[in-house]
């Protein structure tokens, strides 16, 4: 899309401009996440979810109709500003489940987002430029020919509209009236209060103010970990598609957009199967928090192999890149699920909307930096393939890996107390 908008003067600059389109959504969400969290705590999770989905229907459609680079920037920014679903939906997933099922509830939210982040680009890969790919179905004079990126956006908007209709049957969780659910929530809140007892002295109970939440180190350490791993994941996703379609002369994979769409679709289905069939057993035997570190280590080792895939050809390349992408998304889903559970068990129910708002605000700031930084780094790497101590593509993936290494190191004391987190969860 950036190439067709003709904002980039040369091929190596496409990643630079693409990064800012990706960053706009997250930077706009930085300013609106806490207000959305306060709204969800005051008026309920359901209204916030419905309004957010409606904003997707409107502004995602307008994004597909963009005729200039700046129109694309503005529509993505407005979508980020008005889509406040992420914080409330994580609070909702915790509240709608009993304690023994909370890990699965959070993991389903995480996996649904992971699937969306791979199925969404897959829809783009198959449906973008339909008049060129499917000339028998779409003419160049039709709206889909004049706006080559409208069809994938329109399909996603239809899916969002369906989700909005499904919200009719979505129960509100902010005020429970079922005794069994009340008991489950009371038990969870009692557990949170007990976890605040240190050295025989009870800390003061937190109220709903953002100031007191910012002083809650159990919450803030979990949020910072979550932000760092989100920075890594977003930079990886931004880089992967650009690297996969770039030419062999830049040590890319020279895949088509359809090939990339297939890889991302396979990863999405694989993550869904993992979360539904494998992850519950993992939680049963090891808990939701303990797999965080092994998943981070395996993710780091896997990403080291990516630059060497440029040496592969045809069938072996497609097989290995599908396996690598699937494993990478499985590890990411495991890590983000653990971080989300840590955040939601660190506060009481009436604080979860604001707490997740703080989390999404900081995470959006990190995710806003990630695409822009990844795009700039990708363009730099393609211009410096030789003459350095490592080829540009290896430096690119090394820098992305460094973020994950920092996150792994922060899971240890004195920054983070894993033993205390395991007791709370």
UniProtKB/TrEMBL annotation:
<dbReference type="InterPro" id="IPR011701">
    <property type="entry name" value="MFS"/>
</dbReference>
<feature type="transmembrane region" description="Helical">
    <location>
        <begin position="104"/>
        <end position="129"/>
    </location>
</feature>
<feature type="transmembrane region" description="Helical">
    <location>
        <begin position="43"/>
        <end position="63"/>
    </location>
</feature>
<feature type="transmembrane region" description="Helical">
    <location>
        <begin position="263"/>
        <end position="283"/>
    </location>
</feature>
<protein>
    <recommendedName>
        <fullName>Major facilitator superfamily (MFS) profile domain-containing protein</fullName>
    </recommendedName>
</protein>
<keyword id="KW-1133">Transmembrane helix</keyword>
<feature type="transmembrane region" description="Helical">
    <location>
        <begin position="149"/>
        <end position="171"/>
    </location>
</feature>
<dbReference type="InterPro" id="IPR020846">
    <property type="entry name" value="MFS_dom"/>
</dbReference>
<feature type="transmembrane region" description="Helical">
    <location>
        <begin position="354"/>
        <end position="380"/>
    </location>
</feature>
<dbReference type="GO" id="GO:0016020">
    <property type="term" value="C:membrane"/>
</dbReference>
<keyword id="KW-0813">Transport</keyword>
<feature type="transmembrane region" description="Helical">
    <location>
        <begin position="319"/>
        <end position="342"/>
    </location>
</feature>
<feature type="transmembrane region" description="Helical">
    <location>
        <begin position="219"/>
        <end position="243"/>
    </location>
</feature>
<feature type="transmembrane region" description="Helical">
    <location>
        <begin position="295"/>
        <end position="313"/>
    </location>
</feature>
<keyword id="KW-0472">Membrane</keyword>
<feature type="transmembrane region" description="Helical">
    <location>
        <begin position="69"/>
        <end position="92"/>
    </location>
</feature>
<feature type="transmembrane region" description="Helical">
    <location>
        <begin position="395"/>
        <end position="416"/>
    </location>
</feature>
<dbReference type="InterPro" id="IPR036259">
    <property type="entry name" value="MFS_trans_sf"/>
</dbReference>
<keyword id="KW-0812">Transmembrane</keyword>
<dbReference type="Pfam" id="PF07690">
    <property type="entry name" value="MFS_1"/>
</dbReference>
<feature type="domain" description="Major facilitator superfamily (MFS) profile">
    <location>
        <begin position="1"/>
        <end position="419"/>
    </location>
</feature>
């Amino acid at each position: 899309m950036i190439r067709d908008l003709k904002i980039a003067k040369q091929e190596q600059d496409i990643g630079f401009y693409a990064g800012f389109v990706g960053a706009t959504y997250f930077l706009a969400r930085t300013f609106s996440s806490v207000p959305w969290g306060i709204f969800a705590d005051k008026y309920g999770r359901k209204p916030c979810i419905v309004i957010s989905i409606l904003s997707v229907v409107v502004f995602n459609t307008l994004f597909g109709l963009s005729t200039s680079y700046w129109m694309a920037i503005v529509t993505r920014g407005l979508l980020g500003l008005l889509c406040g679903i992420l914080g409330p939906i994580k609070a909702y997933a915790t509240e709608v489940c009993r304690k023994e099922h909370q890990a699965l509830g959070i993991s389903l939210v995480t996996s649904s987002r992971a699937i969306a982040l791979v199925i969404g680009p897959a829809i783009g890969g198959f449906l973008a430029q339909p008049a060129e790919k499917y000339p028998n179905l779409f003419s160049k004079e039709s709206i889909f020919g004049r706006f080559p990126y409208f069809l994938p956006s329109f399909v996603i908007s239809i899916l969002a509209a369906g989700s909005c209709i499904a919200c009719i049957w979505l129960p509100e969780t902010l005020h429970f009236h079922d005794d069994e659910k009340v008991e489950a929530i009371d038990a969870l809140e009692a557990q949170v209060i007990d976890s605040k007892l240190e050295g025989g002295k009870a800390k003061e109970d937190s109220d709903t103010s953002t100031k007191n939440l910012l002083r809650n180190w159990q919450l803030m350490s979990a949020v910072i970990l979550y932000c760092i791993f989100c920075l890594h994941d977003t930079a990886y996703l931004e880089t992967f598609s650009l690297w996969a379609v770039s030419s062999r002369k830049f040590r890319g994979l020279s895949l088509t957009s359809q090939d990339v769409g297939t890889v991302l679709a396979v990863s999405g289905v694989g993550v869904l199967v993992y979360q539904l069939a494998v992850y519950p057993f993992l939680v049963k035997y090891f808990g939701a928090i303990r797999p965080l570190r092994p998943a981070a280590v395996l993710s780091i080792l896997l990403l080291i192999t990516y630059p060497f895939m440029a040496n592969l050809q045809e069938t072996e390349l497609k097989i290995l890149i599908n396996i690598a992408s699937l494993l990478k998304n499985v590890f990411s889903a495991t890590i983000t699920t653990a971080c989300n559970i840590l955040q939601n068990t660190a506060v009481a129910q009436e604080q979860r909307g604001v707490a997740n708002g703080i989390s999404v605000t900081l995470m959006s700031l990190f995710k806003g930096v990630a695409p822009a930084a990844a795009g700039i780094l990708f363009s730099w790497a393609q211009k410096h393939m030789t003459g350095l101590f490592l080829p540009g593509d290896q430096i690119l993936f090394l820098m992305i890996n460094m973020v994950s290494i920092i996150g792994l190191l922060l899971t240890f004391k004195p920054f983070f107390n894993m033993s205390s987190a395991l007791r709370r969860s």
